[in-house]
Each structure stands twice: as C-alpha cells, then as structure tokens.
Protein 1
Amino acid sequence: MQKPIYLDYNATTPTDPRVVAAMLPYFTDHFGNPANTLNAYGWSAENAVKKAAEQVAHLIGCKPAELTWNAGATEGNNSVIFGLIRKLKKENQKEPIHLITSNAEHWSVLNSFKAAEEFENIETTYIPTNADGIVTAPELKKHVRPNTRLVSLIWVNNEIGSINPVEELAAFCQAQKIYFHTDATQAVGKIAVNLQNSNIHFLTFSAHKFYGPKGVGILYMRGHNPAVEIEPFILGGGQQNGRRSGTLNVPAIVGAGFAASICEKEMLEDSRRTSELCAKLFSKLGEKIPTLQLNGPPLNHRSPINLSLIMPVSIDLVLPALAGLAFSQGSACHTGETSSSHVLAAIGRTVSEAQRTIRLSLGRWTTPSEIDEAVRLIFNAFQPFLTATAPIKKNDEPPYQNQKN
Ligand SMILES: Cc1ncc(COP(=O)(O)O)c(C=O)c1O
C-alpha cells in the first residue's frame, strides 16, 4: 500500500537520515553514561553531549551552559512554570503570585497553568489574542498586576501558524521585572531565533520538530544580565548540575545537536521552499474552492510550514476520501462528543468552522508533485459538496465558548 502524503510536519518531523546516522554509534560503540567520567566510555558520551550543546547553542545564539536537556517541550514548559513557582515560594512563601499566558497556547502550558491554580494557589490570567492569533504588547500591558511574576507566550502557534512578537513582549516584561518564557517548539529550525541580545528568560523546544529524534527537548535559561534559575522540576541524582536529574539520553541528544547543525545550514532554504509550496497549495485550492478561508495571519506573515484552512464542509464527512493524506483537524470526536480546537475558539472561529478546519503542514521533504497530488485529493474529496451546499453564512453559527479558560 502506498503511504499517505505526509502533510503533518507541525505534529512531528521524520528524523533526518543524516541525524539517524550520527546517532547510531551512541547506541552501540559509545554507550557510556556521561555522568560516569571514570572511564573512557563515559568520557566519549560526555564529549558527545558537550558537542551537541554547542551545536544547539549555535543555532539559537546562546551559550551551551545556558541549555538543559530534557524529554521534550512538554517537560520544558512544565518545568519552567512549576520550577519558577517553587523558586518564588521558596523566596517568599506568603507573597501571592500571578502568572499570565494566552488562551491560544499549547496544552502543556495551559494544563500547567490549570494545575498551578488548583494545587499551588496561583492567580492566573489567559489573555485574548487578536483575530490572527497574536498577543500584542498593548494587550499584555492591560493584564499585568503588581504581583505578576511570569508571562508565558508561544512563539509560533502550532495550529494556525501565527507568530507572536516575542522580542517586543520580552522587552516589556524585562522592563517590568517580570520573567518571560516562550514555547519556541514551532519556531526553532523554522524561523530565526537569536538569543544573543534578547530579553527572553526561558525558552523551550523539542528536537522532533526540527528533524531530530523524539523524546529529547531543550530548556534555555538565560545565564547573564540577569542570570535566571528555577528550582529543579525532576529530582534525583543531580545530573546537569542538579538542574534536571536522570541519565542523559545520549543518542537522542547527539541527534538533537546534529539536527540543529543541519538546520543552521539549511533552514533558510527549507523555509523559503515550504513557504512557496504553502502559497502554491493555498492558491491552487482557492481556485477550485472559492469559499476557502485561512485561519491565522496572511501567508507572508505566518509560519513558513503551516496552512490552517476552513473547508466547505466538516472534515469528518470526507475522511475516507482524504485517506491518501496525513494531516490534522481543527476538531476531534471523543466518545461521541466533538471537541473543537481552543486555538480556533480563541481567534473567534465557530464550532462549525473548527469542524471544517484542516491543518496542512509542510517540511523538508515535501515536493511540488506532492502538493499537486494533495490539491487533487482535497478537491476530489470536497467536490461533491461544492455544488450541493448553499454558501455558508457566517452569522448563522453560534459563537464557540472556550470552555477551558
Ligand atoms: C507549540 C508546542 N509546544 C509543545 C509541544 C510539546 O512538545 P513535545 O512533544 O516535545 O512534548 C508541541 C508539540 O506538539 C508544540 O507544538
């Protein structure tokens, strides 16, 4: 059976074969524990981890010592939020703490905020985005309180490809002496991330979104002007200077480093190519499906790999006809109930619009002929409905209430 065309690079990327080749010796020949520097096996593993940190640091313009390895962006986001809460509480048990995020974040941030409210007695605010899914500095300003200690805002949205003005938001926070964290999982390796003269305090991301392996992530904590620290979130044997305990996953770390070094060389060209292919896909589909709408910002102001499109009818109605494509939906059906995307709700999309939303995301190996084939498959799937359905009137639909915030 022919494999479906993979248009789900926002969900995960295939590991680049060059990365796999770089990782392999670390399963078999150099399998030592980098924490055990009493033998040559440990030294070679330790050196490999050091090199990987240099490669990642080079890609994002920071120092290797500012990086901590972990199991992925979910862990990174949890550890920034709870590690900072622990640190602030240790400094002053009585002072109330207020944290800010937006209602268009990844669940690893949103659910950490929920748990912080429930178990840590933390005050939280979920600020609204604009219609493109962007949080602006003036909007952030409105929600800051005297006890706001952390602002956590996504850099590039994983569902709708919007790009927050993180440097402007971080500069505002720095001036207010508020910690600023950004979930840069969909940014690193896709758009320029340079922390050299940045006001960002914490940045989290994951190797499997930039052609590295799954299960390895990176937390950046600024080491200067001011240096920031949090209480460790994962406790144990004190590896990584006590910042995150546990034996390092050396092959995955080697893969993350190598993937970063490839991105450094190829990212510009990759992004130029995927942007062009996104534009081609959007315009060809638009020619055939006149009601087609884009969620999030216009093409040249969004993630270079993401298209979030509102189709004429619910995606569920055409799933069998789209079997040749791997993609994501704006809503999902769990045990008979449809849950719509909170991100689409945040930008004011209705339940019906969420049900009609398809996310197509492109990457390093997407080809022009795959785009042609995707257009053909999508058009064929929706064609029966194009003549049969009356044009959809936007105002007929009830606004979707975002249950989560
Ligand atoms: C924006 C964003 N943050 C966090 C995550 C979680 O990353 P991980 O799979 O490494 O835990 C993802 C993955 O889907 C993501 O897209």
Protein 2
Amino acid sequence: MIALIDGNNFYASCERIFNYEWRGRPVVVLSNNDGCAIARSNEAKALGIPMGEPYFKLKHFEKTHGLVVCSANFVLYGDISNRVVQITRRYCNDIEVYSIDESFLFLDGYSNQLQRMVDLRRDVLQGLDLPTSIGIAPSKTLAKVANKIAKKFPDRTGSVYMLDSWKKIEAALKWFPIDDLWGIGRRYNDKFRSYGAHTAWDFTQFPDGFLKQEMGILGLRMKKELLGEAQYSMSVPEPKKMISTTRTFDTGHAEYDYVHERVSTFASECARKLREQKSCCRHVTVFIMTDRFKQNQVQYSDSFTVTLPNPSNSSIDISKYAKKALDHIFIQGPKYRKAGVITGTFVPENERMTSLFDIDNQERHAPIMKAMDSMNSRLGKQKVKLASMDVQTTWKMDQKHLSPKYSTSFYDSIILKA
Ligand SMILES: [Mg+2]
C-alpha cells in the first residue's frame, strides 16, 4: 500500500502555528510582491476567496471579517516542511518527498498500516501543530483520491482514509470528479467531459484502446492505477536539466545598474542551485524584457547565450558571464520590467572536462563558494553576496505582511515569559 500525507492549506496552516489568535479566522497567504492569494485557510475559502485572487480584491475582508493577510514566507514553510518529513521518516523508511507539503510513503512490509498513519498524523499535529490529511491505497493515483476523501470528510474519516477493499475503491471512484484526478489537465478534462465522463469511475469504463489513442500510455496507466494496479513506484529525483531564476520587477527600470544588479543576483542564485545538485553548467542565458501590457511605452526584449570556457557553478564566474550576456542585449531607453538568467548544458561537478588553454577558476572558487553557502544557510539567504549584487539591500520584495522566521532565525524566536 502507498500513503500520501498532505498538509491542509499548508502555507496558511504554517502561518497559524505561531499565531494562536489566528485560529478560526480567515487567513490568506499572498504570492511574491503581495500579488495574489496562493493559500487560503478553510475560513477564507468559505468567504468565497478563490485561489489566485488579487490582493486588492480581497482587502476589504480585513475590515469586515477579520481576514489575516500574510506575505509568502518560504523560509518558514520550507523549514516546517522539513520537520514534517523528519517525523514522517519515523513511520516509514521509503518515502518520496513529492512537494513542499506532500510525501508518498511506501508501506509494504509494515503491519497495522492504518493505525500507523493515524499515529503519524497525530504526531505531526502534536509536534508541529500542523493539520494534515492522509490517504492510503494500492496505487499513487488512488492514494491521492483517498487523501481528498480524508480532507473533505474529516469528521467521518478522522482525516485518515484507507481504500483497502474493492467496494470502497468503486464507491470512491463513482464519487470522485474527473477534473480532480491526478494528471488530468484542463485539456483532457474538457475532452472527457464532452464524451460524457464526469467521474473517475466513468474514466475507467473507457476501453484501453480508446484511452491510449486519446492520452497515450499515460491514459492506460491512469486507468490501471485507478483500478488498484500500481504503475508508479518510488521515483528518485532526477537532477534538473535546466536551472533558471526569473523575476518581474516592482516597476519598470531603465537604469543599467539596476538591471545589472538584478541579473547578477539571479546568476548567483542559479549558481547556488547548481552547487546544491552538484552540477556545473556550460551555458548562461540572460533575457530582459519590457512590460508588454504598457503598449504606450517602448517595447523591447532580447536574450543572449554565452558559452563558458569551462563548466562552472561558481557564483563569481556565472555572474561574470551573465554580465557579458547582458551587455550584449542591454540598450538605453526602454524600461525593463522583467529579467532572468537560465543556465543549461550540465555536467556533474566531479566529471568536468576543462579546456587546455582557458584558466579554470572552479577549484579556486570552490572553497569561497562553500563558505558562502554555509554562511548563507545559517544566517539567511543572500547575507553573504558578491560585490556586484546589491550590498545595501535597497532592493527588496514587497512583503508588507511578512511573518518572522520563527523556526530558522535565532533573532525571530518566540520569547516565552514565565
Ligand atoms: Mg496541501
């Protein structure tokens, strides 16, 4: 059997951990730059606030319904996520961390699986004050279905639900809307609905040949998974083949220095991600673009790719080549609204082939990068920077409602008065 543990309204629940008085109140977490809702507590959902709602449209609930608004605090969420994983590992050796708030557990070999998961849920709730839902079923796709049932009917299921008989599976499939199926995108959803299929059960009634023709091998696999035949085992995360950092600026910027600082910061962030997966890149691409919605302003966008003489994951090197790429495309005049750095063509860090004639900085920079990474992981992201990055941190994300880093920063610890 496979279990799926999933944090309920994860970001919103993380915010509530440290603010007891927010319990029972609607809570919304906003995307970068306080743009729109990316997580909602049940109370916020009950107010009819949809996912992706822009802040200005939900602001009025702050006064009328005591809505709490938080800027996304990914450092906090990442840390809580790690703690959930730590607890989960106590209950199962084979786990696949699927996303920041979801993990699959491969339970074969464990006895009393349902009770085991009930205990896990209780432990996370008691240890972290974080509500989760757990679904248990013979396949990953069915575990997702079971999880939704656990989440939707907490009173009936105690937030843990197991599909352990064909009778239960059949009932679940007949209840489950086809659009909520894992792997059914909008495109397939519209298509299957037009064929009169509305539930997961309807999906399983299509002949194999038809599903293969409509969705390829994925369709067949999904049918088998829904019928309880596991098609997907534990997947080992593959190193990424492309790493990019891209941002939209708060407003248009025409100044070279501003755009250069941003590009340098993005390059440095790409290099850090490369070091994390122990890869080096051969290509660095930079793109810049103006705001395409402001048609009364000069429109311009371009990109340029630089090939590195030697594969690298040094922030110093990658920033240097990103600057070269930027200098190729930057022109005076347009107001730039977005920029990004993309690194590609990876080689494993320990299998680098270096050029005979070009100077190789990798070995020289490695200890500096190591020191930088370890200090940044202790002190907070980008505390130690390159000189080409903004040392005064005049640039900041718009995060007016940011909660403290309670669990990762000593200075943000909660003080208890006894
Ligand atoms: Mg979730």
